[in-house]
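Box 3.1 A note on notation
Throughout this textbook, protein chains are presented in two layers. The first layer is the amino acid sequence; the second is a token string describing backbone geometry. Keep the layers aligned when reading.
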Amino acid sequence: MRIGELARRTGVSVRLLRYYEQQGLLSAERTGGGHREYPADAPAAVARIRALLAARLPTRTIRDLMPCFVGDGTELQSCVFDHLKTRMAELDDRIAELSGSRTALGELFDASVLRSADDPVLTS
């Protein structure tokens, strides 16, 4: 299938499909006229790429994970479980860090609002 058809079938822009190819995430053969021809399983590959991007994985990691899919779905082989668990732990750490920052910022804001309400110079 050509790039336009793949874009229509997947809802992904032609430009983004070219980017996926440039990053080594998607492959296509070239016709004699230079047009890209994608294999029949390209829509499944695009769905996999989109799933991994939604998980905020960098393209270099996605490139490494692409051969590790099972069947036509988005399930991965068990050999990558440790990598995925490590990534989830990193995200948990970042979430905890951001939550602490949000709490501290909220406390600063609340204290500032209370202070400004009590200060006649700031309220006039």
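Residues 78-124 form one domain. The beta strands are 29-30, 36-37.
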